[in-house]
Amino acid sequence: MTYCVGIDVDEGLVFAADTRTNASVDDVRVHRKLHVFEYPGQAVFVLMASGNLATTQLLVSRLQRDVEEQRTPNLRGLRHLFEVAEYVGALLVDSQVKCRDVEHGHDGVNTQATLILGGQIAGERPGLYMIYPLGNAISASPETPYLQIGESKYGKPILDRIIRPRTRLDDAARTAVVSLDSTIRSNLSVGLPLDLALVRRDELRIGGQLRLSGDSPLYADIHRNWAHRLEQAVAALPRFPWEQQA
Amino acid sequence: MTYCVGIDVDEGLVFAADTRTNASVDDVRVHRKLHVFEYPGQAVFVLMASGNLATTQLLVSRLQRDVEEQRTPNLRGLRHLFEVAEYVGALLVDSQVKCRDVEHGHDGVNTQATLILGGQIAGERPGLYMIYPLGNAISASPETPYLQIGESKYGKPILDRIIRPRTRLDDAARTAVVSLDSTIRSNLSVGLPLDLALVRRDELRIGGQLRLSGDSPLYADIHRNWAHRLEQAVAALPRFPWEQQA
Q1: Residue A232: its chain B contacts at CB < 8 A?
Q2: What domains sit in chain B, N to C, each tagged with a CATH number?
Q3: Contacts of A187 in chain B (CB under 8 A)
């Protein structure tokens, strides 16, 4: 399984993903699911993937090749983010079919993948899309300023309570880390380390990138700090009628 | 769908359940899922149910009848909580079959239900069981001091972070309300009002019972207070390396 979350606030975009992949419970590995495509001053994209790893790795390799060989279309050549979503969606559908072909008709393997794609192209505002296995896409909106793929339920309540378009970008990133941390704590199929990337509006480059592992002091600090503050928050909630007034 | 959580801490037991039942998205109703069986000084039990409503209502009616008619076994007659779990489990299996019979062979209906049963019998410590559709049961333990049935993922992280055997009973109840509130906010199939019941160790009666609806001031207060404290907690988390030191 996987858990990735993308957040679209006024100040920019946040991307956070875990790195655990498993073919079964005794075949667990670490693979990067957050991929950066950076063309400073011109465009910046971040792609996160859940689903079949062969499909998503093939997709990423093809995206890079199309830019290097200046094929049409490619990530540097498109002028609108929705066109990039269409292009990536078409490539995703093709990669899913390709990965199934490789299996020589072994149809039991699910080669589907779901993507979160976000970024900014010069002249446009930043945007965030979810791309489905069929290649179609939906975008985040002010009412729903985040998108999730994979094991999304554990990490959803904190996003619902905190994330608004006016949330500060770094606070949105802290919320994303907490959302990942909650999921990792409650579900074995999502695991550390986690990758984090920020795109600040109109900078047209990556505004911050980080890998947090279990032994990184910042992660341990966030984890401990959060648990402590939640305990305080629970203890400070209103009293029930049967509790004596202090 | 449904969400119920039972918590077993040193000071006693907490039970919390939503009240939404739905046959489909346009057939949504409110039904009690938390049932109290109180025999002061002798024994107290709380039963929560997810699954087929006909099954669980039949089960509750039978439990009451067995006590009234002094049948063997019945809730007042058993001396150990694990025997009560066995008795309720057997009655659950029978109610599932009975509800299917009523359908005259209409096998498409799923009459299964899953239960959380907790309470205390004089002379024993309090206990908490999950009873599966097959009639078998597992109990909570110091390492896993809570049990959930229904739509459990949204409300799990807060329980994982807060609930320990030494957590105060009223704080455990506050955590249960937050766990319910998080689920209700993130998932349409779980809805207000919510029922809450407490059993304090060795009191052998209900130590507090409450129905919280959307317009009850206490619920609104907890909801608002929690959102506010979470925002503060996020803003107070450690800074990322790219943030300027204040």
Answers
A1: 229
A2: 3-235 (3.60.20.10)
A3: 153
